[in-house]
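User: quick one, fold this
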Amino acid sequence: MRVRWLPGPADYDTVWQAMRRFTQARGPETPDELWLLEHAPVYTLGQAGRHDHLLNTAGIPVVQCDRGGQVTYHGPGQLMLYALLDLRRHGLYVRDYVALLEAVVIRCLADAGLGAQRLAGAPGVYVGHEGGLAKIAALGLRVRRQYAYHGLALNVDMDLAPFAGINPCGYAGMATTDLKSCGVSWSLRRAGEHLSSALVAALADHLADQHVRVSRQENSAHDPSSPSLAH
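Assistant:
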């Protein structure tokens, strides 16, 4: 697994096209990569994103891309982790992969002393905020053949005002926050190193668990004392 820091704030379209080229050119032996960076200000719409979720872009560029989901904002002070992964290599289906990404973020925030959770029907990670919940991390993926790209965005220490110009992830009135507002003073570098290390470890753990399950199933199939499923 190669982990790369890209210079930034990076132009969104440039990085997106680089991900697409990498994914198009890769094969079964291509090592996976994690790209860490922050973007110049941009709103991005998923491939089925609705423009009516753009309320007031205030001159911020809008890019419609090929990830899933609706609209979000990227800008300086937000950590982007783009995971260019062979899901088959890691024994992952897309739904399992989404759950793994959310779990990794929740675990990292717990390490920072911040409680976080999922929200049913709204992928991402949320923290307590003014008696409700606020989104602190967003997910967006694309899978071509077995190869995934795009990834997740974690709000670290950023200007949150542009989120007011959209319905974040397609939800009107959804609150957003960042680590700084929650009392966590992590640099972008620290957040990126922590998150990427946790993701690499989680992928290894998932694959190891899968190998154990397969081994147990094979042992059970060859154990004459196991109950037969034949009729």
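User: anything notable?
Assistant: Confidence is low (pLDDT under 50) at residues 226-231.
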